[in-house]
Write a structure and sequence with these properties.
With about 325 residues, the chain is α/β, with parallel strands linked by helices. It is about 30% helix and about 25% strand. The two termini are about 20 Å apart. Its EC number is 1.1.1.405.
């Protein structure tokens, strides 16, 4: 069967590739709705090292996607069933390592084609069904699953005093992490530290919000999540080391292209635990769907989603990415090409 794949061949430039695919032993999905991630934007804008771009392009972007089953040779799903797609391809299972960190694992839209295709073929364990979730919300399931994964690792790493949790960042990642924490730890007080007052207004369900340069004297928390990334990572981690009480757990989630210095002396003196969290696995997707089918959680996610016009042509692909540059949180779009 001939499949159409829409690849980024160089920054800002998309092209159509035809490929022969044997779909007989996998689940065949027609993408319906997709979301843009910062990682996709870095490729689109060419904000990765030139050597990395040469290695990875051409490549179909997008790893946040939901769709409908059109055919399943495995008998696991029904035709027309709504599903979310898991971009992580597990590597070697050693019984210890999470699938998203396993040696030999691959990630679609990072070194191999993502979901910008006419049809997507996946093994059944890379597909999770859903029912009571609107497509624009279901499109960001992968993003929610990343927050679920971090929350799960936090539960295992953090001591039992969880009265106050600080979240550094005021973007989409910080928002979704707060949504997940509010749902899983309803008794904990959540404090959000950001730098954009208008964005912080969206965090109405948090207990308090603070501007990063106006933290009150004596501000302390039990644990923290760093969701800034980029140049903001240094300042966020520095603030966290100061604010977290002894033996606190710190979850690092923001991606930085540059080295970030940290005050190791204070980390040692306080006995802090730093945990790096990236991507997610199947069990995180299943939990994410479970949360997203709850009306209040779903409503909160809807508040940060901007739905752009549907994609009908290759030219529309660039429009979506350019629109996303001016969207404060998540951009989603219908896939009708």
């Amino acid at each position: 069967m001939i499949n159409y794949v829409y690849q980024l061949v160089s920054p800002h430039v998309f092209s159509l590739k035809y490929e022969e695919v044997d779909f007989k032993k996998e689940v065949i999905i027609r993408p319906k709705c997709m979301a843009v991630c910062h990682a996709d934007q870095r490729y689109f804008l060419g904000r990765r090292d030139a050597k990395i771009l040469r290695q990875k392009l051409p490549m179909a972007l997008i790893h946040e996607c939901c769709g409908q089953v059109v055919w399943d040779g495995t008998g696991s799903f029904q035709r027309g069933q709504k599903v979310v797609l898991i971009p992580n391809v597990p590597g070697r299972d050693d019984g210890v390592t999470y699938e998203n960190y396993a040696e030999g694992s691959r990630f679609l839209s990072s070194g191999c084609d993502g979901f910008m295709r006419e049809y997507v073929n996946l093994s059944p364990d890379r597909v999770v069904p859903f029912e009571q979730v609107p497509l624009p919300v279901a499109a960001i399931t992968e993003f929610v699953s990343v927050a679920v994964h971090a929350a799960g690792r936090f539960m295992r790493a953090a001591h039992t005093r969880r009265e106050t949790i600080g979240v550094w960042g005021d973007g989409s990642l910080a928002y979704v992490v707060c949504c997940v924490l509010r749902q899983l730890l309803p008794e904990s007080r959540i404090f959000v530290v950001g730098k954009h007052e208008r964005k912080l207004l969206q965090f109405s369900f948090a207990d308090r919000t603070f501007l990063f340069d106006s933290l009150p004297e004596g501000f302390h928390i039990d644990h923290a999540f760093e969701c800034t990334g980029g140049e903001g990572s240094y300042y966020a981690i520095d603030d966290i080391i100061t604010a977290v009480r002894p033996q606190g757990a710190v979850m690092l989630m923001g991606v930085s292209e540059n080295r970030v210095p940290v005050r190791t002396r204070d980390i040692l003196e306080k006995g802090l635990t730093f945990t790096g969290c990236s991507r997610s696995g199947r069990e995180d997707f299943v939990k994410a769907v479970e949360l997203m089918e709850q009306p209040q959680f779903q409503k909160r996610l809807s508040a940060i989603i901007y739905e752009d016009r549907p994609v009908h042509t290759v030219a529309d692909l660039s429009r979506v990415f350019e629109t996303d540059l001016n969207t404060p949180f998540k951009t989603v779009f219908r896939w009708e090409i």
